[in-house]
Amino acid sequence: MIIDTMLCMEYLGMNEEYWQQAQKALDAIKSDDTARTVAKNSKRLLCTEKNVSEAELLCRNLTQYARAFLPQHADMALAALLGACLPAALQQLSLQGVPDDVLKDTFRDFSRWAETYQQQHGVPGIGELPWVLFPYAQRILKLGRLMYETVFFPFPYYILKSNANGDITILAAEGIRVTAQGLVEHTNSKPEAAVFTTSLVFGHGQLTGNRVDINDAVILPQPHTIRLAEHRILLSPGMPILNMHIPQEGPLTPDAVNRSMEQAIGFFEKRGFPCETAMCESWLLDPSLLHFLKDNSNSVQFMKRFAKFPVCVPQPSAAKRIFGFNFDMKQLQDAPEETGMQKALKAYLLQGGEIFDVGGICLLK
């Protein structure tokens, strides 16, 4: 394994010095029997078998081993491996007909996380596993403003579409513990106890369960019944779907989003992947944006595209995305106010407001 510095600079970004350090780390890995074996197996799992979960485990093992036995190169160990894997990954994707501009846009996401690592740790390196592995395993592509990951729908919701007017109904799966706010218990690590548990019953051509308010992203306590003959199941847990991601770059204008969605339809349709809908999980889907952003802002317009549902995460991602990855909510009073978004969110949170990560689906066609 070697690192092609010019190729890495062209596709992954970062400067020549960064990749020279990566080459030194790779040389150290190759000179150590254990590290070399772990790196070799990581490359096989990632580039040949496309097994992200196992590759992630070995990548973490490689970094941990380097911290103990190759400490001078520990921060760059993962960058060294990914740099060495780049030619094989590009060749495989090119053979599948992925355009070169799409490859460059996709793999250039590496530089964002390398810069984040520098900000967090004060030294060159890369982290953010397993995310940085996805391009190598052919799991994600950047098409215009957005990135699209091929996944199986992971959330406990059934999405149905009316045959008559195309309206979307979302019913919660059975067994979700829901708070008085209509949120999943333990959302944002809050101690609020559940007040009801969802149910879902099928019989006599009808489906009865707890409906989700798709505008407010809350689960309603009252049972709701629909006739299946009048609806089509658009999505259920385990079905293939495009998972939409929003890179931190430039404005999220409606035109840019529309163009990206059009690209996604054209690209994935040719490859036989279902692309009627896309899903997203992000703080940018939170209806609470309406409390501190203008209705015509890009972020609010993006949020309104989605039929939304609540998801349970320990902490919302908004604060770190907006104030910086080293930000702690205990430091809210001292949070930066350099952008309009920072000022608006800080004021909202200081007034007792809350923000959540929210899931949602939108129709691509």
Give a structural overview:
This protein has 365 residues and is α+β, with helices and mostly antiparallel strands. 37% of the residues lie in helices and 21% in strands. The protein has eleven helices and 14 strands. The protein has helices spanning 5-11, 16-30, 33-48, 52-69, 77-95, 100-107, 109-121, 254-270, 298-303, 318-323, 340-350; strands at residues 140-143, 146-152, 157-162, 168-172, 177-178, 196-197, 200-203, 206-213, 218-227, 231-235, 240-245, 277-282, 307-310, 358-363. A six-stranded mixed β-sheet has the order 1-2-11-12-14-13. A three-stranded antiparallel β-sheet has the order 4-3-10, with no helix packed on it.
CATH architecture of the largest domain: 3-Layer(aba) Sandwich
CA radius of gyration: 22 Å
- How many strands, what sense, and barrel or not for the largest sheet? 6 strands, mixed
Give the structural class: alpha+beta
How many E-type strands? 14
What portion of residues belong to β-strands? 15-25%
Uncertain regions: pLDDT < 50 for 5+ in a row? none
Query: What does the average pLDDT come to?
Result: 96
Structural topology:
Layout: H1 5-11, H2 16-30, H3 33-48, H4 52-69, H5 77-95, H6 100-107, H7 109-121, E1 140-143, E2 146-152, E3 157-162, E4 168-172, E5 177-178, E6 196-197, E7 200-203, E8 206-213, E9 218-227, E10 231-235, E11 240-245, H8 254-270, E12 277-282, H9 298-303, E13 307-310, H10 318-323, H11 340-350, E14 358-363
Parallel strand pairs: 11-12
Antiparallel strand pairs: 1-2, 2-11, 3-4, 3-10, 5-6, 7-8, 8-9, 12-14, 13-14
Helix pairs in contact: 1-2, 2-5, 3-4, 3-5
